[in-house]
Amino acid sequence: MYKQLLKDRTEAGFLLSEKLKKYQNTNSVILAVPRGGVPVGFVISKTLHLPLDIVLSKKIGHPNNKEFAIGAVSMDSMILDEHPEVPKKYIDHEINKLRQLLKEKYELYSGNRKPIDIENKNVILVDDGIATGNTLLASIAMLRKKNPAKIIVAVPVLPSDTVPLFEKNADEFIYLIASSYFRGVGSLYEEFYQVDDEEVIKMLSIINTTE
């Protein structure tokens, strides 16, 4: 679709902005996944004159295997798969613990700003790429509970076999490179540095003081 390698997250943001142009100056909000999704979302936010916020979620691990997700939680929503063998007490404890961690993380990034209300708004969900897609799918499911007008997922790169999954779960799915030989998100960028907390804080602060 494009050349098979993106220069960096900034170029990815500009290229996605082109495909998202119809949302410029509309009742839409960009929710970026920290940390790597924020530089991409920042460019889209500035280019299309849309507010920028972050979306945070964590998986709830099975008590016998923490890597196996039995659900996911955000600061004010959750999804759970059916696992009758898992005690309710364990799930409640995990939800409270993870929510506290997410709240602390949100305050680190956004200070005392309140999360943007997304009801009846177009939500443009942005990350710097998709590997398995599990986290984004969980975020979509939780965001649906807040009654947005529609959910648009916009990512620069992903494995080609994941495309149908997001076309099915998002109202609109926009991407730049779907690779048949996917070796990780970073392999499709010339520059792919580790985004740190300070950069996320700075970008969110710039957008929220220029609105």
TrEMBL record:
Residues 11-159 form the Phosphoribosyltransferase domain. It comes from the Bacteria. Pfam families: Pribosyltran. Keywords: Glycosyltransferase, Transferase. SUPFAM superfamilies: PRTase-like. One of its GO terms (molecular function) is glycosyltransferase activity. PANTHER family: HYPOXANTHINE PHOSPHORIBOSYLTRANSFERASE (PTHR43363), HYPOXANTHINE-GUANINE PHOSPHORIBOSYLTRANSFERASE (PTHR43363:SF1). This is Phosphoribosyltransferase. It comes from Flavobacterium petrolei.
